[in-house]
Amino acid sequence: MATMKDVAELARVSIAIVSRVLNDDRSLSIPDSTRKRVIEAANQLNYQVKKRRQKSVLKSLKKVAIVDFHPEDQERDDPYFWPMVQGIELECQEQGLPHPSKIYVKSADEFDPLELSQYDGVLVIGAEEWSGWEGVRHPGLIFLDHCPNPDEYPSVVLNFAAAVRQVFSHFWKLGYREFGYIGGLRLFGMDEREATFRACVKSALGSEPAVAHGDWSTSGGYEAMRALLESDIALPRAIFAASDPMAIGAIRALAEAGKKVPEDVAVVGFDDIEVAPYVNPALTTVRVQPELMGRIGVRMLLHPYDDEVPLQVVMPYRLVVRESCGAYESVPALGGV
């Protein structure tokens, strides 16, 4: 019996496009020739479109695990991943599920995804660049923050690249042309925020931003900013910090060096933590909802969809403009996105 993957291969398109064409999704913007090719491939293979239906709530979630690719000793300092973990735990508690076990991945050699078969539900956090998921099959596997293959696995993700491009565009419109980045390190590969910001600067100026790393805490941002201040390079005019605590630490380091924010250096953070509007100057940042991401992941475990194309939820984000970037504007009530 032909599958949607077979149709996609014959039509030379992605599984997602096949699903949307065969389900008559008119919001899909593709050439008519591509749409025709998909339909002809489906007819040639005698593929029958399955009606999408929601499965009954799983009753067998007796063991749930969180697989965390974030360093355990830094987890509570990260305002993005820590609320995500809390969201998972709170939703499990409210849904009457067992408290999830935690598996911290310290190195690629120590982690075998086949061991996850002992769990009924698995929520994976932060597996950005690890390539070991190929061929892994688990009916209760959900990826949060990053999905290695949206055609294979259900996920709840944030479009980091789009959010960072908006930050860079905001800086650019304000007239800044000398850029810096401070952020933490990931277990595998470069953080997507750093990679995207580097690419934006490279595309616009043909050069690299000044970069310094620390852990994801306020002290990490403070030390990273001090490293930039003490380096031989010219001080950037605009700094993007990959977390709000790092941005707050950077502002402190700048103040100690006699630099004013935003008059001398503009700063934008990421997360919109509770204290962001109350630091001096009030912090411009990207608002995200990591706790809700964790909660939605648990709900997807409880209410899976019977479809050949895995469900992917893309979370909203919003650039909240305050004083630290040099372009203050009034902000709607906190809590919305």
Structure report:
By secondary structure, the protein is an alpha/beta fold. The chain folds into three domains: 4-49, 434 Repressor (Amino-terminal Domain) (Orthogonal Bundle), CATH 1.10.260.40; 64-158 and 290-316, Rossmann fold, CATH 3.40.50.2300; 160-288, Response regulator (Rossmann fold). Helices cover 33% and strands 16% of the residues. It has nine helices and 14 strands. It has helices spanning 4-11, 15-22, 32-44, 81-94, 160-173, 192-205, 218-230, 244-256, 290-302; strands spanning 53-54, 64-68, 101-104, 121-125, 141-145, 155-158, 179-183, 210-213, 238-241, 266-268, 285-287, 305-306, 312-315, 318-320. The strands form four sheets. The chain has a six-stranded parallel sheet, with helices on one face. Helix 2 (15-22) crosses helix 3. The longest helix has 14 residues, at 81-94. The chain is globular, with a radius of gyration of 22 Å. Mean pLDDT is 86; it is low at 52-59 and 329-337. It holds the Pfam family LacI. GO terms for molecular function: DNA-binding transcription factor activity; transcription cis-regulatory region binding. InterPro entries: HTH_LacI, LacI/GalR-like_sensor, Lambda_DNA-bd_dom_sf, Peripla_BP_I. Residues 2-58 form the HTH lacI-type domain. Keywords: DNA-binding, Transcription, Transcription regulation.
